[in-house]
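Let us walk through a complete example step by step. Step one is to write down the protein sequence. Step two is to encode the small molecule, zinc ion, as a SMILES string so that its atoms and bonds are unambiguous. Step three, shown after the inputs, is the structure prediction itself.
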Amino acid sequence: MHVRSVTVGADRVDVVLNVESAAAMRTSHDGSIVARAFDLLPGLADHRCANDDGRPFSEEIADTEVPHLFEHVVLELMARSGSPRTLKGETTWDFRRDGPGVFHVSLAYDNDLVCLGAVKAAARFVEYMLSGGDVPDVRAEIEALTALRARPSGRPT
Ligand SMILES: [Zn+2]
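Step three: the predicted structure of the complex.
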């Protein structure tokens, strides 16, 4: 999965993602993805999700699009670093219009820097969930994101 672009809007951040392998487009293609996701971010189990059949994300996660997992990872990282848990995201796609494997993830934010930082960290975290390897340092990421929030906005240093 690759982040193709990130656009900051007035109240949302829009991310365009590309999942190269059609076989690896869903979380169900490898049972260890969900185990790694819950080990890394246990809070994902409590996420609500606005899917068609009203299932909680803890069930949805077993078989959903990888970019939808990414959306929830961003929201979890934002929440862990102080953003309201009521912030919502949305994952959509139109392969005919955009090409196969291209997804749009739209994220509401309360702090744009925290949201952008969470997008970057989430891309690395999801890569780990998909492929394993070195376990990311969640605590360090949360601390870095929380520090971004403390920065006065509009005054780059
Ligand atoms: Zn969802």
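Step four is interpretation. Helices lie at 32-40, 57-60, 66-80, 95-98, 112-131, 138-150.
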